[in-house]
Each structure stands twice: as structure tokens, then as C-alpha cells.
Fold these 3 entries.
Entry 1:
Amino acid sequence: MPLAKRIIPCLDVDNGRVVKGVNFVGIRDAGDPVEVAKRYNQQGADEITFLDITATSDRRDTLLHVVEEVAREVFIPLTVGGGVRELQDVHNLLNAGADKISVNSTAVFKPEFIREASSHFGSQCIVVAIDAKQTQWLEKGDSHDRWEIFTHGGRKATGIDAVEWAIKMADFGAGEILLTSMDGDGTKAGYDLKLTKAVSDATLIPVIASGGVGNLEHLVEGVKLGGADAVLAASIFHFGEYTVQQAKQAMRDAGVEIRL
Amino acid sequence: MQIAVIDLGIGNLRSVEQALNAVAPNSNVLVTSDAETIDQADRVVMPGQGAVGTWFNALSERGLEQAVRNSLDSKPMLGICVGMQALFDHCEEDGGVDGLELFAGEVRHFSNFHQQGATASRLKIPQMGWNQVSQRQDHALWQGIDDQSHFYFVHSFCANLKLNAEQDCVYGEADYGHPFIAAVGRDNVFAVQFHPEKSHNDGLQLLKNFTQWNGE
């Protein structure tokens, strides 16, 4: 029996409010995180991801009390990321009620952190978030599709190849990859399916597709064509275009194993 | 009513505590590593995560093995994840660990089974996600929960009965490249491999059933 594919609403949080940007800028307010999380829980979300999007840039700590409040009322797995730099941050977030911790920039600057965190807390609770953008890689002189990873909410290029990075992070003990296409993010044009497929094929850990969902067909594509184990979306749920339940029904109708 | 949640200092028990508070708001949920509190509680929840060897070491360091055995003999008890695995005879994790021997079975790594199965070549370990549970028998804790409902699992080791063992303790099975025990019980004890505290409405229903179960 294959595991059910997961639908994960994502709450990008800035200053205690849910926001949604287009291509990582252009912010639109989408509500109180506790209320939004409760709504998705009621709609049957399989998991909720909660990213403090300004935490790294502004060097602020993630809003632990918001996590605590969400965890008090939401009894599905909760992933939290944003500004995780030390083992103590992981510890604090887990204690606040998170089940998995997403690490992005810190993994790039200090890859050993992923090894330490996964051996300390278990691979199952360490998610490595990758923000990737398609690139020409002219200096490498080949014509394959390639993607470069970025940090700091998509503002800093790293020169690191996304697929190679995902393999390395899995090897270091990451339990899951949260893969965001920066080209797609906020555009509603669909996931970068080539990127998703490339990373899914290259690793043995679950891959969550993210960035670019505009309709329910995109969610189906992420699983069927991208090979993702879970699909993440924000704005199609935040602004009431679709409920999580509708998304799950669409997946089920398309023959995807899903928990209804 | 007092519900003791056994705290061995491994992992976060807040979810279990909050889920119990949500389904039984009038009860007193005590996350504890105190033997007397466990002995005096009306019900006991025995969670666990990580390695079973570490779990048993923590149990003995805290001097709680007798309190656990007392509870297993006397009152409604719910094991979760490693708290279920610990009830079997033996676990191959950490070079081999003897269990509490309530159920005649063995806890083994999924890879033992996956190597033999062609279909399982891409199954990821740990199993992490929502899987369906086939209810093998009625039980008070299944009340209000449909057969084949999905529950949330996170584990690398799974339990199976010994060959020729009596099947009557198996209340739920799931399949991840190989069938394994998802729920097991006898008398006043019920234990699940999945995490009811993270399994949305069906998980909360199971916990609510537990808080209302008299152990018969």
C-alpha cells in the first residue's frame, strides 16, 4: 500500500500575519495564522507548513508562541521553518509543538548542521528547504536543465546545483526535501515539473513540490508528472479559490492515492 | 479522572498531552516520570519515539519498569509507536533488545522485508505519512472510526507476530511493502504503531475512545 500523497497548505508568516508574495516580493495579507491553520485542519489538510519568511533576513526568532497556539488546536503534522540556525532553535520549535523543522540557509552555510540535527532529533523531523531557480550554467558548457539554489528568501545566489544539493542533504540525514521553484513561486503557472522530477528521481527521501500552483490540475501534475510525495500550495487556499477538500477530491478523481 | 502520560525525556509529548486535553477536557492529563503518579492514575498512555533501546534505557534509568508492568496488569493502557513496539518479545534495533513480552512477536526494520519484495524497491524508510489501517477485529477503541481509515505513521521498524502465534491480539494491520501490525491489544491494553495525536479526526476519536474505555 503506497502512502497517501499529502496536500500541504503553506502559511508564509511575516510579523505574525499570513502573507503571500509573488516571486518572493509583493506581499498581500491573508490573515491570522492560528485561524488560517484551524481552517485548513477542518478542511482535511494532511499537514501544515509554517514558514517565518523574514526570520533569516531580519535575524528575528521564529514566532514560537504562534506555533504553540497552532499546535494546541491542530492535530496533524506541523512543519515550521524560518531562521533556524542552531540545534537550540530546532529544540525550541519542537517543544513549541512542531513535528518537523525546515532548514534552508543554515544548511547551505553549514551543511554539517543537517547531520547534527538529524542525528540528534531524528531524520524524520528534519526537512531541508531548497529554493531553486533554473539557470543556464553557461560556465559548465552543457545544455542539460539545471537549477541553482538561493538563500535568504531567494535573494542570494549560491552557485550550488539543486539536484546535487538534494542528494547531499539526503546523505547528511535530511528526512524530506521541500523544493520550491522560485521561477514558479506566486505565478500560478504550475510547479516546475522538470525540477521536481529531477530531484524526486535523484533522492530516496520524500519530496514536497512547491511554488507556482494556480489550479487543482497543477497539484495532480506535481504528483503524477513531478513524482512528488506531497504538494504544497498557499494562495489557492488562502484566498478561497479552492478548499483543501476540493483539492483532495480532484486528486482522488485523477487516480492519486489520497486520504479523504 | 487522571491520565498519566509516561515521560522518558525522549521527544516531545506536548502533542499527546494537548490531544488528550482536547478530547477529555474534564480529565487531568499528567505528563510524568514519577512511578507513584503512574501507579495512581486511572489510565496510562505510553508514547515513544526514536530507538527502542534508548527507550528501555530511559525507562530503567527512571526506575519506571515496575510502574509500567503494574499498569499493564491493572488499568486501561494505550501504547503509541515505540510504546507499542516495546510490548513485543524482542526488537532487533540497537543490536537486539528484549521487550516487555506481552505479545509474541518481533520488531524488525522495514528493510528486512523490502529487500525481498520487488514492488517495494522505491519505498522510503522511515515510513512517514498517512497509511490505511485494516481493522481485524472490533474493539472499543475503533468505535466511530471507519475500517480502512488513514492514520499518520512515522517509523522505520515494524512489528509482526511470530509464526504460529495466536492472531487474536491483532486489531489492525497496515501494509508498507509488507503487512505489519498497526494495532494490537489484550485485556486492558491497546497499542498502536501510528500517532493518533497527529491523525486528525480519526486519531482524536481513538484517543477519546480510550479516555472512555473501561479496559474490557
Entry 2:
Amino acid sequence: MSKHVIVIGGGVAGLEAAGQLSKAGIEVSLIEKDSLTGGHLNNWYKLFPDRRHSSEVKAYLDGISLNDRIRLLTGTTVEKFHRNKSHFSIITDKGKELSADAVVVATGFDLFKSEKKEEYGYGIYDNVISSSDLEVMFRSGKIVLQNGTVPKTIGIVHCVGSRDEKAGNLYCSKLCCVTAVKQAIELREHLPASKVFCFYMDMRMGGAFYEELYREAQEEWAVNFIRGKVSEASETIDNKLVIKVEDTLAGRPLKMELDLLVLMAGMEMSEGGKKIATLSGLTTGQNRFFSAADPHYGSNRSNINGVFYAGTCTAPMNITETISHARAAVSDVMDYLKESN
Amino acid sequence: MQFDPFVIPFNIGLYFILIYVVVRSIIWFRDLSRPDKLRLQRGFFGIAFVQSLKEIFLESLIHRKILKTNLRLGYMHMSLAFGWFLLILFGTIEADIFGAKHLNAPYKAIFFRFFNPEHGRIGFEAAYGFLMDLILAFVLSGLFLAVSKRLWSGVVGMKKTTRLKTTDKIALTSLWLIFPSRLLAESFTCGAYNSGSFLTGSLGSWLASFLPAQQLAYPFWCLYSLSLGTFFVLLPVTRYMHIPTELFLIFMRNSGIRTGDKTGSFSEVETYSCSSCGICIDACQLNFSAGITNIQSAYLMKAIRNNDDVSEIAHNCLLCGRCDQKCPVGIELSPIRMIQRRLDEPGNDFKNIYKGYFRTRQTTLQEKPITSVNYDFLPGTNPEKADVLFFAGCMTHLTPAIKNSMVKILDASGVNYSFIDEQGGVCCGRPLMLAGQDKEARELINYNSQMIWKSGAHTLVTSCPICYKVFKESYYLDVEVLHHTEFIKKLVDEGTLKLNFLRKRVVYHAPCELGRGSGVYDAPKELLKHVSRLEKNKFEDENSLCCGGSLANMKISSQKRNKIAQDAAAELTKDYPDILATACPLCKKTFSSATDAHVADISEIVAEALIEPGIKKNIIKQNSTIKELVKI
């Protein structure tokens, strides 16, 4: 008799895990709250560091996850989570009861709600947008201000809701820096007449080819990097933004007028993930992400035997890492199913 | 002559403490400032004297305020204080009426039964004996609670009780021994002589039935005298010094003396008046939310008395003022904490407890030297002329939704106003003051004062309670200072501002600096009632919680701060209101990252409720900078 696994979350990690499980002959039910699978990938334009189109990765994921062994339940949320020895049963918001031998949690991340840093004026000033809003603009091909004009000076604020004690997030989301570099290049590409300023605390270019991209941004695209945290933004009568920032390398305060301000929102535990945690009793860490059974060799295992983690529900990760993590989760699931036989 | 050597410890203790209290009082009086001396002299011969007697009876003996907050704890304090007082009073009368002669030495009243073992068998004597036994039983019931509180603070309805130092423990033990040893001494004597009333008589005859009462009585009389003597001698170096000091405090306070901003006799009297009852510990959010249990006001008072280094304690406090409101002795706890912040690090000169008997010289601690500040870089002051000034303050600039709402309201009101720090202003000075740097703050105050004077305005409106408090208290201005809630309420009352009613359920969080700090409770609530459905919650007015964001605490970690904010927000949003309203940009910001509930300043709610006037009355700004607000 074939085994059945429920995957919660249909983003990059969920699709990869479902695809790999089905390859191994497992019956999979994939639960996704949105009407479409793909998660954040659907909103993104191009990916760092090589700036390939996000649809290429989406196409790959669709390719491995669209098959007979995977039952897709889109527009569905989990309402109840029961465990009876080695048997799991999940009841959805549509009243459907699913049962499984193991569960893979791939609930992903939410972007930090930039409204919470009210001093930057997101949701208050017209031309303050988040990194994700900018991706939508890139996709539509129209990068314009609220009044329809083209921005000339653009500021990018790093670490919005990351490494921020007051926001309650001590950790580094680690991908916003490279996203800022990528978006700065793309802005310069779309709007060659514009000036782009990045305001950073530290440039964390830890991934493969990130540093190269950072160098390219400076040398080829003349993006200005200013080390300092923006303290506040305000709006002038003629609809421009004024930001206050301390240039910590020059050691002096700066006031700068901008047309557009882009906030690099950090990554947080998703609302969906929090709900699963309360329903199931899975433990979360101080950073509110799911806490793994072992930080070194058990990052896919949870405190519940038979429940596994895949992707950014455990920590910020890029797509490469997310896909690897999802495959590792599948490997753990297979071991578990074999042992429990 | 009725005398026995066992009374000597009691006599030594009694005369020692009487002389000590007199000398100490003289020193305190001598150290008062001249105006305070005059206040006290006037108070002594005026109505303040009668008031004080009343207050001493109600607070020092009955402990009315503790009874109001916590019945069991109040009963414990009352039975010990009032009971002991009655025991002394009626004991003295007993010795005077029934003793060998009138006007006896105090020991004869205290050890009356020893010298009159056969007293109280019949008639009036017996009735009086019954009364004395009743009082003793009353005291013993309180003692029973006190012992239980030490072992398990929940007995008296408290979560935490104060920790003690060694001398306190010895004094506490001797205090605890006083009444049981009196009970046993009297009982043995009564048992031997077949006298005594329902308590001492019954216990005595029962004990005498199987014990040699005659022989055992004497050791217990010795123990009784010794524990009294020990207690009296240790009193000045323990928290029990509050017993005599509180009387002095009540007189001083009723004479109009206040703590002020420097150390002095009064703050020292207040420090010694703290009985370490622990009510401030239960009231403190650092305790019940953040788990910080060593910095509460009772510990601050103790550390000051012990000449410990208090800077850590003094700075690890939100200065929310909850303890000031709850203190049953009425000690001005936050002002005393502020004084400690202004002082330089104290040296531990008085480690030796013997010196602890006279350590009034601790008040000579040096004030912090002024840091070399230079504010020459500030631009010159050249404000526009206006009737009303709006000073947003730095926190309002960090919460632009509040700033925009205020501009929208001011524009709609048609008053001739000027947004004085629209392009960024100079700090009001309060953060420096909270850090104990008053002199540096004064520089900023002077700068802002000049600006306000030159504008010719008659009203100064601010959105930030932190600015509001300092403008009200530390600026010498001839303008009316209003918090925006007061100002908007005035506009509404005058009919200048017309507001819709929003169908929203709102819970109001009173900010510390506005509520307890400045006494503004009603204006915000009435304004909210005018525009929305204001709901009740458990923490209103003086009992409001602190959001945890307070600028005053320089020691607490962000995690603990967030914990306080989350707990407070959870408490306030228990009934899922549509809006958690506050009147402080810092509270708004702190709560915003601590709860998923919608948090808004009152000005935002008012701005949404605005009915735009047909014709603006007196428009100054042609180009309003304001655009659509965030929808609430």
C-alpha cells in the first residue's frame, strides 16, 4: 500500500517537496491557501544573482509538481491538525478530512509589514513603496510615481524590519541586501537618467556571486551606497520625500530629497505558519520561525515525529537553499516512512 | 518599689530609641531649607497639626490605604500597628488605675501582669483583663498573617514580598518574638496565680496543668523584655525605622513640604518612611511582565538607606509612576528616583552598620558635573508670527500619520497657527532630564523658549506628552500649553471643529506622561466619546499601564521592553476593540509592533471624523501639505 504525505504550503519549498515525494512513489496532498501555487515567486520579476526571469523557476517547479500522484488543494487552509500515533489527520476550511503518514510543513515567510516602521511613511506618503511593490512595477514595465511622472532620485532603505530590536526582529534576513543591489541595477537599467542611493548598515553579500553583483552595481551602474540608517522620512509641499540619515563613514548627518523611497522589507515567520504552530504544537524559536530538532543535522525535523520542515518556515533562505532544504526534507520523510513500516 | 532586673533590656532599648528619635528629628529639622523650616513651624501651630493627627490615626495605625488596595494585607498591618498601639495605651491606663501608684515608669505598664499576678479576677478588673486579652489576640492574628506572608506571600493576596537584609531579619525575629513571648509569659503567670482572662487565663491554666508554670514564667518575661529591647536598639538600622519616621513625614507633608529635585531632609524622611510593604512591587510592570524583581521602589528606598550603589536601580525604571499612585505612605517615589539619577556615583562610606545609626551625611553626594556641551551649531531663531504654535516633537515626526492628522485638524479649525518644528526642531529637553542631565537640558529649553517668545503666540500645542510635561513644568513661558487632545476638545466645545461619529469600538490607553505624569485623563476620553464608542477596560486613569516604550529606562533590554508592550497591549485588546487609541506617539509606536490590533492616536481618529468646513475661516497656508490619511 502506498504511503500518503500532506505538504502544507505551495510555494517553492512545498512544490519541490511534493514533486520529489511523488517521484519516489508517494501520494501527496498539497494544501495552498492562495488560488495559485508558486508563493512569492509569482510577485517577483527577476531573480538574483543572475537576473534570470522568475517564471523560469516557476516553470521548473510546475513541471515536477503537476502529476497524478499530487492532489492540489488550492484556496484551502488548515483548520484542524490531529495526530494519532503514526497517523496524521488534517481538516481543511472546506470541511475535508485528509489523512497521512507524514506531514511536510512548507509555510514559508511573510514580508515584514513596512507600515510598522511608521517613520518611513509606508502607507502614508504616496511614493514610499516596498521591495515587493517595486517588483510588481518591474513586471508591469512601468516605474512611475503616484502622479504618473518618472522618478529621478531614488532611495533604497536596507534592513526594514531586520536587525531591528524595536521591531522585535533581531535576526538578519540576509537576502534584502542582494535584493537591494539587484533592484538598484534594474532601476538604473529601466531609468538610465535616475540616481539611486542605497542606505545600508552592513552589506551582507554572503551568497555565490553576490559580491560580484555588488561590484557591478557600483562600477557599471553607478549606484551610490551610503552607510547609515535612515531615521525618518517626511514629505514636502511639492510631493517630494525628505529623508534624514547619518552617513556613518563621513560621520555627519544628511538630509536628502528623493522622488521615490523603496523599503527592503525583511522576512518574518508567515501568519499561516503561526497558525499551524498553534494548531499542531510545533515549537517556534525566539525569532518566531519554526525551531528545528537540531540546528546542524536536523534542520528538517521538528519536535513532532513525522512532521518535517521545508524552506523558509525555519529561517530566511534564498531559492537555491529553499530547494535544497525541501529535497533534504523529502530524504528525511522517506527514512521516516521506511522506519515506521 | 516594684522592680526586677529582667526589665533592664527593655528599659535600655526604650530610652535608647526615644533619645535616638529626638536627636534624629533635630538633625532632620536642622538640615531643612529655610523656607521648609518656616513651613514646618507654621504647620505645627496651624490646621496641618490636626490634619496630621487624623492622618496618623488613619494611615499609620489603621492603614486605611492598604486596606483599600488589599484587605488581608491591610488587616495584617492594622492589627500589628493599631493593636500594639492599643496594647500600650490600655496597658498604661491599666497600670495607672490598678497599679500601686499613679504615673508609673513605662516598664510597669508593659510588664503589668508580672508585677500584679493576681490582678483581674473579678468585676471591673476582670472586664479590663478581658479587653487586654482581646487586644493581644488581635495583634497575634496579625502576627500570624505576617509570619505566613514571609513563608508564602499569597496568604495576604500578594504575588511578591520584599527580600530582607541580615539586620532586618534579626529585627524581624525579635519583633515576631515579642507577642508570643508576652502571651506565654502572661499565661504562665496567670496559670500559677489562677488569674487572667479568656486567652491568658485559659492558656495559663492549661499549661499549668502539666508544666511548672511558676518556674517557667520568669524566662518568658526575660525573653519578652529582651526581644523588645533588641527590636528597639536595631530599629534605626532596619526598615522598622518607618514607624517613628512616618509620623514626621506626615507632619512635614501636611505643612506643605515637597520632595523637589534635590536631596534633603524631606527626601530622606520619605526614604526612611518606606515600610517595604511591597505594594509597589506588585504594581510594577517590570516585575509582572519583564521579570525584573530587584529595582522596585521598595528596593530603591532600601538601597538608599543602606548607602548602596543605586545607579543601576535608579536607571532601570520606566518612571511610569504606577508605584507613586499605589504607595500607601504617599512617598514621592519617582521624584526620589530622579534625584538619584542626577547624583554622581556614590561611594560606600558607611558599610559599618554601627555608623548606620547616623548617616545623614549621605546627602552630601556630589551632583553630576556638566558635560562639555556646545549647542552653537543650532540655527538662529526666527519663527513666523502666529496665535497658536504646533510643536510636533521628534516622536511625532517619527509617526507621520499623527503629524498629518494634526495639520489636517489645524487647517480645518481655521486658527492662525504655525507648525514650529515642521522642518525638524530642537529637542524639548525631557530625554536629557530623564537621564539626569538637567543642565544640558536647560540649554535646549532656552533655545526653544526664545523661539516661542518671538512667535508672539498665546497657545502652544504639542502632540507628544513627553514634550507636554516638560513645556508645562520646566519652561517659564507665558503661553498656554495644551496637549493636542485638550486643544481639540476645546475646539469641539467652542464649536469650531465639527466631527462625525464613527461607528468604531475604541479602547483608550492613557499615556504615563499625560495621565499620571500631567494629570490629563478626561480630555482624551471625552473626545473619544464624542467621536466613537469608548469602551471600558480594567486599566484606566491612575491605574493605566505603561506601554513599555518609556524613554526613562536606559537599562532594560529590547526583548523585555517588547514583553511589557505585548502584555499591556494584550490586556487592553482583550475584548477585540476596533481601535486601540492612545494620545502619545511613543505609545503608538511601541504598541504597533507589539499587537496585531489597530493602534491609532486620537488625532488620527479625529482627523477621520472631520466634517470639512464649507469656507475656511482664516486660512494662512494656501498650499496645505496634507494629503489623504491612512484609513483607520
Entry 3:
Amino acid sequence: MSRPATRRRSSFSRSVFVGTIVFLSLPLFVLVLYSFNASKSGSWTGFSLRWYVKLFTDSPQLWRAFGNSAIVALSSALVATVIGTLGAVAVNWYKFRLRAYLRTITFLPMILPEIIIGVSLLIFFSGIGMRLSLFTVFVAHVSFNLPFVFLLVLARLEEFDFSIIEAARDLGASERQTLLKVILPLSMPGIVSGFLTAVTLSLEDFVITFFVTGPGATTLPLYVYSAIRFGVSPVINALSVVMILGTVLLTWSTRNFLKYIAAK
Amino acid sequence: MKGSDVVIEHVRKSFGDFKALDDVSVGIRKGEFFSLLGPSGCGKTTLLRIIAGFESPEGGAVLLDGRDVSPLPPDARHVNTVFQNYALFPHLSVFENVAFSLRLKKAPESEIKAKVAEYLQLVELQAHAHKKPSQLSGGQKQRVAIARALINEPSVLLLDEPLSALDAKLRQHMLIELDSIHDKIGITFIYVTHDQQEALSVSDRIAVMNAGEVLQIGTPQEIYESPATDFVAKFIGETNLYEADVASVSGETVDLSVDGFGTVKVTATEPPPVGSRVSWTIRPEKVRIGLEEPKSARNGINAIAGVVDEPIYSGFQSKFYVRTPSGLVLKVIKQHADWSDDGPEIAWKDSVWLSFSAEDAYIVEVKR
């Protein structure tokens, strides 16, 4: 829809815009500001990098938690990506009974409240007698990451005319060759965004992890939560700023990567 | 002749309650341009997909050079397909699309380069080798699909309504190109279409299908000039199709008494007995239309008076719907010839005379 260029934006829409931006970023701004505060208390006493120094040199528990989070995030995202991709390919490629049912039930973990998933996983693990540890966290993360990968890859596959699969078979490709040479390259953007979504979801998950974690398996969100219970530590502020930067960098490089794939 | 002969024997296929193919048998000769023609849902695409190996028949066999291939998967048949929506691989360039089957066979790089160049030349796309399918026009995509299917040197090329996504002018052009590719390569082409004009203009032989059955197999001339059933007569070209009773028979000439119309002389190679109910046809372009009564009403010429109900002018020809006093309406097509014999103009409500030879009018079906 085109509008006359001369028409003035209403002052109402402008104030809504500014209000939204302020509302969304003011907390972040305060957070960034306070990470450079010299004092530990709430009042501004001068610029300092001491919390960053403390973050990188004197926070072993924090880094252990970060390490746990990184291990769980990467491994669960990887496993979820492999299973989710193969599942999406199967649902897209083969016609079988219960196909529609399988599609629907895979979305279930996305819709259910996290607390229900957390409780059910806890009951499940204790039911089969599995000790809570980083491994149970990993299993839980795979299970809630799977639907996202499945959905993203399936959406990508459904963009394509099914006859290209028949064309590949017609030109002499076996099922395996069709998968490797046609289906996987075509779904690559879906697979990459599925993997990154899974990493992100896993890194930030609190509720489900809280239920299924065991001794020594504290992840970063759990650590931050427990640290903050004894008062806000400016080290957490500094950590948050580092993570914001990391997220921006990751989003930017992903976008470029997807553009690169699309152009290839 | 290169290529293979393809024999379809008693093939049956249904989807749920829907009978897509009901005991279909067709023999296709080596190197032939063979068309499967019929309305949508007649089973022609299903038959093609069975030959390609995408569907398996519930009964019967598909023989390639005498060998039953029906249990083989698509990649094990020496048959390639040009798909209706091209089905090009969007992530590969034109070159890689065409090279796809050679790369699967792990052909040496030099051979791949040479053969892809050869086949891109065949479809005149050398200049577009580096492009992605999304950068091509519809006609160019179709040509890539053809080159990709041919590079494997199949013995049979299957074409599934390959021109249906193109506009009318381009379709005409591609049709001529397909015909010349067929002449150059000399393998068997099996061409599925619902467009009778396409089928008539390029095929060596045509199988007309409807509701899962083959109604007639023959050359375009045979199909057009002597349709085997009412459906074929109506589906191929424009026609006048009526029912009548056989009044008398003398040799191959049959006098029919058309309901509320009078007597019409037609030809039948195997005349049905007097009293039979039959359907008969006369093509609109075989009927002569004029303002005056035909002078030499020879024996074997039918002359009928009528009034022009509707004249339709379309440049090189005009179509007239002429109503006879009994209410029967005949379609007539008059070609606009040169200045010497176009005759006076015929307009709406004019009283006209129609005449046609008994030799051009045929009995199609004997009803009882």
C-alpha cells in the first residue's frame, strides 16, 4: 500500500513508537550502565571496569555454570537437529499411517507450559531410576528443542515442489543419494536456523532445567538466579553485557550465513 | 530407430475407490512420438507415472523391450521424465542440473563438461549454464528439464504435460522444438497432454483415454477422421454429432433418418443393419455454406436449408451455427480464402444452404 509522501505521521503513532523503544531498552540501558559502576550499591559512584575484571578472573563457579550451559546447549542442539531433520524429512517424504498424528504430537512440547514438561520429565527420570545430573538436563533439552528443529526444517521442505524428489530418483539417484544431494542441501537454511534456535532456547532455559538438574550440574540461568537471591551482584551485570554482545554477534553472523546460503 | 518399445499389458491401478486405470493395454513402437491424450482425471498421468516407476500397478505389466520393469524402482529404469512443473533443483545451477545424473554415475569431469555442453547446445541454453533456475523464464526452465532428462541417454523419454505452464505462443514454439529434438535423438517419446491440438500436431500415434480406459489408438488422421467412439469424436476437434436410425443400406452408403430432420447419406465401412440406432458425425469444416442452393446436387451430396443462428468471425475463418427448420443445429466452419472465391458475406439471420458429401460423414457408434 502506498501513501502520499507528504502526509504527516500522526504524533500519536510517533509517541507509541518512542514509548515502546524506551520501555524495551531502558532496563537494558540501566543494566549496561551499572555494569560500569564503581560501587556495589545502587547509587552511581564513578566509572570502573572492576566487575569485568572480576567476571573474567575471579568467578570460577560462574564459569563452571557457563561451561555446563555450553555443553548442554551445543550437544542437545546437535542431537535435536539430527533427529528433528530426519523426522521432518520422513514426514515430508513418506506417506504412512499416523503421519498427521505424528506431525501434531511433535508440536505438543511447544504448546505445553514449561512447568508441566519439567514436572513430567522429573517424574519420568525418577520413575526409571535415573539419577539427576547434567545428562538428564541434556535429555530434557533435546526433548524440548526437537519440535523447533522439526518445525523449521519441515516448513523449509514444504516450500519445495515434491516432484524434485521424484526427479532425483528418475535421474538415477538412490534414496540415500537423494537425501544427501537434494534434500539436505535444500533444507540447509532450515537446519541452520533450527540448530541456532535450539542453542538459544537451551542456553536460556530455566524452568525445565530447574526440575531435572542434579548436584554439580548447575547451568548459567540457575547460577544467576541463585546468585541474585543474595543481592544483585554487579558481576552478573557485566556477564549480561557480555552475553548481549555475544547474542548480537551471533544473530548478525547467522543472518549473513543464511544470506550466503540463499545466494549460493 | 533407437529407443525401446514399450508394451503396457492389462495394467490396473486404483486410488481408494477411484479406478485410475482399468485394464489398460497399449503397444508403443521403438522411436515413436506417442501421445496419451485425454481430459484431466482420465488416467494418462497415472499411466506415465507407472512407466516411470513412481507408482506401481495393481495388476498387469510394463515391458521395456520385452523385459518386465514393473518391479524396478525409478532409478533402475532406462527411462527419464520431463515433469510438468519442470522440477529443477533450485540449489543447483543450470549446468549442475543437467550434469546431475552424470555426477551420480561418477563420470570423469572432462566427459561431464563435454556432454553437458552438447545437451545445452541441443536446447540452445549454452549462454545460461551458470544461472540458477530462479533466474530463467518458463520456456528456458522447460529446456533445462529436457536436457537434464536426455543427457542420461534414456531409451524412452516421458513428458508429463511439459508445455502446460507456458503461454500459448511459447507453447507452439516449444512444440516444434520438441518435435525436432525427437527427430534428432530418435528415441521413443511418450507425451501426456490434455490438449488435442498439441497431440495432433506432433504425434506419430495417439491413444485417446477417458475414465481409466483407452478408447482408441491411431495416427492423428485416423483419430480425427474416423473416431471410434462418440467421446473421441467430441474430444478431438470440433464436430457435429447426432443420433439417427438406419433407413436403408446400399454398399458402403447408408441412408439415415435423423429425428425430425429427414434423410442424410453417410458412409460406413461396415454398415449396420437397417433399423439400428447409430451416432454419426460430420466435421464443421467439411460442410459447405452458401446463400444459394447447390446446383449440382449429385448423388451422395447432402443439401440442407437453414438459418444462421450465430456467426462467429475469427480472422482467418468464420464459424456459423445454422438452425434447420426441424430445430437441429449444425456447426459450420468456413475458411476465408483469397479474393477469388470468398463469395458474398454471410450474416446473422441469413437463409443459407449447407451441403456435405456422404464420404465425409461417418457412423461412429452403433447404439443398438
